[in-house]
């Protein structure tokens, strides 16, 4: 499979803090790449750097063969990268319908097909179509956030901790839907829930202290108890 | 009864003028996090340019259109060359917009002279209607109607168009709007332009309402507009119209019954709101 995204040794500062100090990764088309690591390791910042929300000060980010690290966020999104932030980024005062309308970049037949697909995947969104986003449950907000990222013809989705703060049964639902979407798009997933990450992921990268320290197929990590203990705190 | 009716009508008309100024201010603050102290200057420029066009052409409608276009133009210039370099820095914003306010006021004196200008309503808006004992001044009704139409128009824009949705979304979460592929800077300019146009419209309507316009009027009204923005909730468009009506009515009634307290009561109202409900009577951004 060919590379869709290639990050080469990026460094990112947030204010005076040197958060990313050398993150390198490759995302293959059609795969789910999972970023793992302890809290504060730099996983979220990696996604935000890809989106241009915390621009890289060094290194390169190549998406579909084009360097994007110096582009503004909206241009990066227009190039085909959808982003589901950790806090879901729902527009609380807008209805589910309005949240989707803001997200749709080009309204055409293809978009309508994608919208139908996502509403079938998340029937709750259809049910609460006219309800303000702020009144949805945590799981429904997560679904809405994923739906907004998916509705455009994005070749890559960056999903940040979709299981955070959700009840186990909702996590299962979100996980199932990401598994279904896996056939349609490429995903970079940040996830603390190792069970979910290992079920969905094809390959992994471990980030520690702002650096990528290990990578490989997910199967390999599942069997490596020492690495899980050392970097993920899983006994 | 007649007195109460007239005070109410007067308060509503003043409230609508304040709303035209405050609405732009609150949207600009809500979306762009910019404290624009020069906004009153656009109100004054709307008054001068509009009244000048009105007296030159004899058409009040041309005056209104001219004032709005002046507001749009000054809004674009202000956003592009003055506000843009200081996004994210409130101290610099306050200093630069206060400076701009002074420049805008002084420029009026340079162009139209230091003396105040007189302005009368057009023929068709002069006079009053008499219903029973009540006398209804036509021009006040006109201002109320225009204010309500603008409110309805902006509400329609915000609720039923893509750009309006983006503005509302941007008020809530700018970063996410950009992550969805929308150039927020273009939206900023659009909002600044609309807000400036509304302020300029308020200015030109104010001319015949008060009978005279002067270069310092922008600052006077800007204080009321800031009070309204705080009371209504910073960034809350619907709150701004409600608060403007409240301030207009309280000003009108207090000016008649306790004139020495008419501005103080609004300040007091703002202070109470800040203590009791700091996010404003109608909530925060929304």
TrEMBL record, chain A:
UniProt KW keywords: Amino-acid transport, ATP-binding, Nucleotide-binding, Transport
Family: Belongs to the ABC transporter superfamily.
Descriptive protein name: Branched-chain amino acid transport system ATP-binding protein
InterPro entries (alphabetical): AAA+_ATPase, ABC_transporter-like_ATP-bd, ABC_transporter-like_CS, BCAA_Transport_ATP-bd_LivF, P-loop_NTPase
Superkingdom per UniProt: Bacteria
Gene Ontology BP term (one): L-amino acid transport
Classification of source organism: Bacteria, Bacillati, Bacillota, Bacilli, Bacillales
GO MF annotations in UniProt: ATP binding; ATP hydrolysis activity; branched-chain amino acid transmembrane transporter activity
Gene3D superfamilies listed in its UniProt record: P-loop containing nucleotide triphosphate hydrolases
PANTHER family: ABC TRANSPORTER ATP-BINDING PROTEIN, HIGH-AFFINITY BRANCHED-CHAIN AMINO ACID TRANSPORT ATP-BINDING PROTEIN LIVF
Species for this entry: Neobacillus niacini
One family name in Pfam for this protein: ABC_tran
Ranges where the ABC transporter domain occurs: 5-234
Automatic annotation (TrEMBL), chain B:
One Gene Ontology term of the molecular function aspect: transmembrane transporter activity
Membrane topology note: Multi-pass membrane protein
GO BP annotations, alphabetical order: amino acid transport
Entry keyword set: Amino-acid transport, Cell membrane, Membrane, Transmembrane, Transmembrane helix, Transport
Membrane-traversing stretches: 12-31, 51-74, 94-112, 139-158, 187-209, 221-246, 253-276
Cellular-component GO terms for this entry: plasma membrane
Membrane keyword on record: yes
UniProt family annotation: Belongs to the binding-protein-dependent transport system permease family. LivHM subfamily.
Protein name: Branched-chain amino acid transport system permease protein
